[in-house]
Amino acid sequence: MMIDAKNLHFKALNERINEAAGEQVVVRNCCGQRYIASGLSGKRLELYGTPGNALGAYLDGSTILLHGNAQEAVGDTMNAGEIYIDGMAGDATGYAMRGGSIFIHGNVGYRAGIHMKEYQDKKPLLVVGGVAGSFLGEYQAGGTIIVLGLHAAERVPVGNFCGTGMHGGVIYLRAESLPVDFSERLLSKKAEQADLEAIMPALRRFCSLFHEDLEAITARNFYVIRPNTNNPYKQLYAAES
């Protein structure tokens, strides 16, 4: 089914998506409508244009493919499914996501992956092809974030305060060096073969989606970042509790 979103209010658009017969829905002329596919399950949605905030919020098993850029809070608290963005995304992408996958060809804004968590057998994945703004992975509690820094001049593909408050999960940065303000509360190392093998399915999927060169991507260094479970701050908090 094809829906022309031109001049449609976001509530009317979402009603038409939810009521559409069949699993495949194509939406054209999307322009700022919020909450598209919120809580949606069982459909494959292809979007053309620029959706508004909270694309795929609470997504529960559907697949979204966006040809264009997205605004803030893509995949907010999503539970399951996939979101593919052949463009850029705004701030708070993947906010509190607890399952599913988000693949972004270009850049993301501030606080991508904030409060990501794992829930039972669900392990969320956020892959950013370009660069990420400050506070990537802030308070991350689970899941995996990968930032590739493709087609960017920056030697470090993240802004300030990467991993602030991180206490679970893992971040992979494809970079020449770590951020200059890298926190002592985090642990880092250059990725070894076993680390790369762990994310290889995600890298292959990214390259297949966006026609990038896997060999060129893996030819550059990756850093693996995790919370330091032995840091003195955590020991202090445990002693006081």
Distance between the termini: 56 Å
Shape call: globular
> Mind summarizing the main beta sheet?
11 strands, mixed
Count the strands? Answer: 11
How confident is the prediction overall: mean pLDDT? 93
Beta-sheet strand percentage? Answer: 25-35%
Helical content stands at 10-25%
What is the gyration radius calculated from CA atoms?
18 Å
How many helical elements?
Answer: 4
Category by helix and strand content: alpha/beta
> Unreliable stretches, pLDDT < 50, 5 or more residues?
233-241
Can you describe this structure in just a few lines?
The chain is 17% helix and 27% strand. The protein has 241 residues and is an alpha/beta fold. An 11-stranded mixed β-sheet has the order 1-2-3-4-5-6-7-8-9-11-10, sandwiched between helices.
Question: What report would you give on this structure?
Answer:
Strand 1 (2-4), helix 1 (10-19) and strand 2 (24-31) form a beta-alpha-beta unit. The protein contains 4 helices and 11 strands, in the order E-H-E-E-E-E-E-E-E-E-E-H-H-E-H. It has an 11-stranded mixed beta sheet with strand order 1-2-3-4-5-6-7-8-9-11-10, sandwiched between helices. The chain has 241 residues and is α/β, with parallel strands linked by helices. Helix content is 17%, strand content 27%. The longest helix is centred in the last third of the chain and has 18 residues, at 193-210.
What labels describe this entry?
single chain; about 240 residues; alpha/beta; 4 helices; globular
